[in-house]
Amino acid sequence: MKEVLAECRGAKVAYGDGESAVHALDGVDLTIAAQDSLALLGRSGSGKTTLLHVLGGLVEPTAGAVEWRGEPLATLDAAARAALRACGIGYVFQGGNLLTHFTAFENVAFATRVSSGDADPVLAAVALLELVGLTEKLDHLPAELSGGEAQRVAIARALAQRPQLLLCDEPTGHLDSDTGERVLDLLQAVQREFGFALVVATHDADVAARMERSVELHDGRVLSAQATV
Ligand code: ADP
Ligand code: MG
User: Fold this and answer.
1) pLDDT at position 83, please?
2) H-run or E-run covering 78
3) How far is the CA of 75 from the centre of ligand 2 (A)?
C-alpha cells in the first residue's frame, strides 16, 4: 500500500450564508497517495479550484475533515501550515501567478531561497530553469515569455520546494493544444524524476485522460471516479 498523503472526508465549503450561499464543495471524499497521478475533471464552477485549495490547506472547509499524512490540518498551527506549504505541497496556480516585475530567474530564486533543502539557492534556481528548458530566458520578465514558458517557470518554482504533492490548477487552460501537451509532458517527466503525487484540475477530458485516474466534479460533488487505462 502506498502512503496516503492527503485525504478529505465529507469536505464542504460554502461561500456566503443562508439562501444565497454557494456550495462550492458539497461533501467530497478524496484520498491522494504517494506518487498518484490524478485529474480533477469538471466544468467551470464545479469546485476544482476550491478542492485544490482545501487539499493544500489554503482554505479551511466549513464542514468535514482534511488530513495531511494522517494529521488533521485543523490541528496544525499557523507555523506548521506555513511549513507544509513551504515544503510538502507545491502549487502551480491557474495562469501561473508569477510575480510580474521579476524575471524568470528571480521568480524561481525566491522559492529556492525559502526552501531549506538547497545549499545554494542561486544554483538551484538555475538548475530548475534548465530542467524545464528555459536556460535562455533567465532574464525575461513574465510579459516577455510565452504562455507555455510562463507555465514552465511556475512549474520550476513549485519544484523548488521538493513537494511530495504537486497541485496544478488548469495548467494548460491558457495554452494552445500543442503547447499544453508539452507542458503536460514536462509535468509527467518531472513527476517521474522527483516522484511526487500529481493532481491536475482541468475542464478538458483529454488532459484528464493523461492521468492514471480521474475524479469528476459537478456542483461541488464527486460525480464519478475512474481509472484511465
Ligand atoms: P472551478 O475551479 O471548478 O471553476 P471553483 O472552485 O472556482 O470552481 O468555484 C466553485 C463555486 O464556488 C463557483 O460557483 C464559484 O463561483 C464559487 N466561488 C469560488 N470562490 C468563491 C469566493 N471566494 N466567493 C464566492 N464564491 C466563490
Ligand atoms: Mg478553477
Assistant:
1) 76
2) helix 78-83
3) 27
